[in-house]
Amino acid sequence: MIRCIIFDCGNTLFTERYALKSLGRIHRGTLGKFGFVISTSKLSKITNIILKKHASEIREAKLPERVFCRELLKRLDARIRLEEYVAEFNVSYWKKIKIFPDVRTVLERLSKKYRLAALCNGKNPTAHHFILKNLKLEKYFEVSGHSEEIGFEKPDRNAFLFVTNVLNVKPEECAMVGDNLNDDVMGAKRVGMTTFWLDRERKNASNQPNFVIHSLMQIEKILDEVRAI
After folding, report:
1. Helix axes 125-134, 82-94, angle to 10 degrees
2. Fewer CB under 10 Å: which end of the chain, C or N?
């Protein structure tokens, strides 16, 4: 019987899509907080220069925001401390991250029946906790694990076992919900968890997870049907 549901975070509970579209405005706003005014056209021109310089890193998704910020301040000859700028930029960026419409209702309902946990990969645990707190999601999770803090990244079995150990439950008593077939689904299946692949964009069907869902709203009904068997 399922007693615990573990949720991935990025692209499962919330999306960075709007924040990414707002990068220019966020940088302009951050510069403005330090008294540096720049036009949209000038910022766009400098941004294109930086992106061209780091094209290979961008293709591999390995360009840290810190590197971009350092290049930006250097090319603007802005006398702003990098650490202060990055900290201010990050907070502004994280505040632009949006929760998916189905999340709050689903967590509210499921928290009355199951123990809930969050399990996230990434490089910045501060971002993880800030976003969950800013979106008012922290209260739903007994455990909120980030790979940098627990020492293991999904799909490593130890990432999932971290949650089961803290909650004192067996892997087969847990369900894992996430959008990544390898990290979330296959990793959880290898330790014996029931798996839900969240395919919000209906990319393609897959027989790897136990269940394919297109909205978190489907989870409760599926688990109720499983319990009734």
Report:
1. 40
2. C
